[in-house]
Amino acid sequence: MDTAQRPADVRSAIVTGGAGGIGRVTCRRLAEAGYVVVVADLDGGRAADVAAALPAAPGGKHVGFGGDLTSSDVNRDLAETASRIAPIGLLVNGIGISPKRGGGKIDLEDVDDELWTSVLSVNLTAPFYASRAVAPLMPGDGTASIVMLESVTSRMGVGARLDEFPPYLPSTIAYGVSKGGLSNLRVSLVRELARRSIRVNGVAPGFVATAMMSAADAGPLVDQLPTRRYARPEEVADAIAYLASPQAAYVNGACIDVNGGWLPA
């Protein structure tokens, strides 16, 4: 849509990891809220498929964006792509990986340099690059925000093996450290972006029914939860949509736990 024809209140929303289990549901939820969505993912074909399946937006066409988001240059291209569609009203840093071994935990001594570097690059460096590239292109009128997809591990760390002691989280230490760093990035950006009137919040899921958890033994995991079940991706997406909405205009620096009642330390 030509800029002259675009409604003044139309905003674009970037969702990194947008072709994943939580990401694609979040993209749909934001499209329903009126955003023109840029679905960003390493797999450009899947990103394009997700964008094509979204409900039509009144202010423009949803876009799939493929690229390695651990590259600062790719994130600059992503930010410019979204800004050409409409002013960027939202960045959802949803990109993330959680390597496992047969659905279970990879122990400390088996976390090699490559695994550590890849997890930190995807889960922490990529959101930093995206936030740095996108923030200067966001409106400074208080309507724009960034949402981090954090984790129950952000505060409690990862757990022990199933044959040791609770809590049981089949995540590598690299994952927990990366999500703890993402939590710190959130609160740091609150201060960094205050002069631009950009809010920064987070959503911290526990166990979510996605492909990332499909190989894990659900029994001992959900037994730790008062709700006795995994979260649905839609329940996480709703929390993200709330933080991006006008109803959360005074919510800044917060993180919403979507973990079924699990109380981290």
Protein architecture, described:
- The protein is α/β, with parallel strands linked by helices and 265 residues long.
- The protein has one domain (10-156, 171-216, 231-251): NAD(P)-binding Rossmann-like Domain (Rossmann fold, 3-Layer(aba) Sandwich).
- It has helices spanning 21-32, 44-52, 72-85, 113-134, 153-156, 173-192, 218-222, 233-244, and strands at residues 12-16, 36-41, 63-66, 88-93, 145-149, 199-205, 255-258.
- A seven-stranded parallel sheet has the order 3-2-1-4-5-6-7, with helices on both faces.
- 47% of the residues are buried.
- The model is unreliable at 1-5 (pLDDT under 50).
Brief descriptors of the model:
37% helix; seven-stranded parallel beta sheet; globular; disordered N terminus; alpha/beta; single chain; 265 residues; 14% strand; Rossmann fold
Write a short abstract of this structure.
By secondary structure, this protein is α/β, with parallel strands linked by helices. It has helices at 21-32, 44-52, 72-85, 113-134, 153-156, 173-192, 218-222, 233-244, and strands at 12-16, 36-41, 63-66, 88-93, 145-149, 199-205, 255-258.
